[in-house]
Amino acid sequence: MMRSSQPLTGTNGRRCKEDEKLINATLRPGKRGYIIDTRSLNVAQQARAKGGGFEQEAHYPQWRRIHKCIERFNILQESLIKLVEACNDQSHNMDRWLSKLEASNWLTHIKEILTAACLAAQCIDREGASVLVHGTEGTDSTLQVTSLAQIILDPRCRTIRGFESLVVREWLQAGHPFQQRCAQSAYSNSKQKWEAPVFLLFLDCVWQILRQFPCSFEFNEQFLIMLFEHAYASQFGTFLGNNENERSKLKLSQKTMSLWSWVNRSEELSKFQNPLFEANSLVIWPSVAPQSLQLWEGVFLRWNRPSKFLDEAHEEMINIIKYN
């Protein structure tokens, strides 16, 4: 599995023979490859007018391009603001709360991301195919898909150390701009232009899988909540800056302590270990059915502990989705 930004084909259909040769070199004998574009076809075509675009099938004959639309930036910002508003609603009106929760589309975004990740994992596991995942810049939705696909396929990524390595490899080293995306509190009702809960959505997807496979992960929910907190505000330098180059220029490795060195101390590590964990070497396939996805109460209702009303509303929401 590979990840990249979009090819710069533009309106003139520019080619890069080196890129074509490199991509084709990853194909196994007699196998096809899949290019998963995390943009809709319409958005990808619009990008061509700005110099971007997508791979032309004529130049990549052994590759099949699939578009799996994952929303970006302002759409995700608005979704999170609406979700937080719904979770802070103290009217105790079940219909109103369910309506607000549905209108936020948060669980829909989770379904879209998990669906794309499962597709990438299926191509690799069931067909032995090579997979290339990209969006526009390759630093947001691309990383959600590649990270989750590895969690589905690789049991090492479900361990504490393995998951830490995954975050470093697929998010920090790959250049996810944490400083821009997590500039303010996730619970803020106003967002700056480049803010987006991309990493939070990824962690929410991991939590959904953890819920469905509670014995297959070495870490618990608190581990994911801890990462969410430190991505937005931290005394450590791990998530500072927008990329490795910025962190290097700021000399963060010399001036700050690593989050991982703190987490991996025995006295801290015990807080994040899952007592139900049993090493599972199998591929795990999460369900994306509406009744399988739930609101992450540990994050979104952490200061408004679920009352009997919220418990009943949650059950009602599941039943509505399940039977309609």
From TrEMBL:
CDD domains: PTP-MTMR9 (cd14536). PROSITE patterns: PPASE_MYOTUBULARIN. GO terms for biological process: negative regulation of autophagy; phosphatidylinositol dephosphorylation. InterPro entries: Myotubularin, Myotubularin-like_Pase_dom, Prot-tyrosine_phosphatase-like. Residues 1-300 form the Myotubularin phosphatase domain. GO terms for cellular component: cytoplasm. It comes from the Eukaryota. SUPFAM superfamilies: (Phosphotyrosine protein) phosphatases II. GO terms for molecular function: protein phosphatase binding. Coiled coil: none annotated. Pfam families: Myotub-related (PF06602). Belongs to the protein-tyrosine phosphatase family. Non-receptor class myotubularin subfamily. This is Myotubularin-related protein 9. It comes from Eurypyga helias (Sunbittern).
